[in-house]
Known about the structure:
Layout: E1 6-10, H1 19-32, E2 37-41, H2 47-54, E3 62-67, H3 69-80, E4 89-94, H4 100-105, H5 110-118, E5 122-125, E6 128-132, E7 135-139, E8 142-146, H6 147-157, H7 165-174, E9 180-186, E10 189-201, E11 223-229, H8 234-240, E12 255-260, E13 262-267, E14 272-275, E15 278-282, E16 285-289, E17 294-297
Parallel strand pairs: 1-2, 1-3, 3-4
Antiparallel strand pairs: 5-17, 6-7, 6-16, 8-10, 8-14, 9-10, 9-13, 10-11, 11-12, 13-16, 14-15
Helix pairs in contact: 1-5, 2-3, 6-7
Amino acid sequence: xxxxxxxxxxxxxxxxxxxxxxxxxxxxxxxxxxxxxxxxxxxxxxxxxxxxxxxxxxxxxxxxxxxxxxxxxxxxxxxxxxxxxxxxxxxxxxxxxxxxxxxxxxxxxxxxxxxxxxxxxxxxxxxxxxxxxxxxxxxxxxxxxxxxxxxxxxxxxxxxxxxxxxxxxxxxxxxxxxxxxxxxxxxxxxxxxxxxxxxxxxxxxxxxxxxxxxxxxxxxxxxxxxxxxxxxxxxxxxxxxxxxxxxxxxxxxxxxxxxxxxxxxxxxxxxxxxxxxxxxxxxxxxxxxxxxxxxxxxx
Length: 299
């Protein structure tokens, strides 16, 4: 840890809003090991990305992120969106309500996450490169279209319900099924159909503990594609929902689950996207594994 310079990006509105006691713990933990941290509190959406796109590349060797998947997304876009080659080590601290990336890394306990950083368990991970609206952005968790986006929009309005909002929003949309016609290109093969939702994942988890892509690995140079077409009834969709938490849904005849290199979604009617748990961007979209990688602290 010698010569390390730590910046901690803190989203004070993330998760259960217990950031004050958590950050006191983080400071004490690293101070005990003679590691000084510099804190940066985000004040609005996009603040972390904005800051990291401009920060001096000599100032920090490591960036620790306290927040949820949306905050993590801002940080990686702030770093990878730069024009120089700045690529600091990144550590994730559990502070969100979903924490899908943290769940995949098995670092849901704050002390374990800090200890993991202290032990310098670094690994290179894949990054998804997203092209939409003439922009290039990056993701390390999920990109969803269709019902998964509808659920994300509604769950944001139900934020006051806490983590239960994901399940409640899911049930509401099961009884209000909306099918969408799209042309999708998987690797180099084109398909056309009516879809309930399409989700592409780099991690095993999404939402609050949903094991959406049980075979996903962060460093396998593969993206996990989950498609549900409109040939499923409300009753079968209700039966399918609990299986999302165990990964058993991939055995259902209503679910297509394959590992791929690239995906393009071109719907008949363009819709918003769910990118790393945040409603952001619009179709059409192209997704592939980026040439860029991230060095992260992993278990």
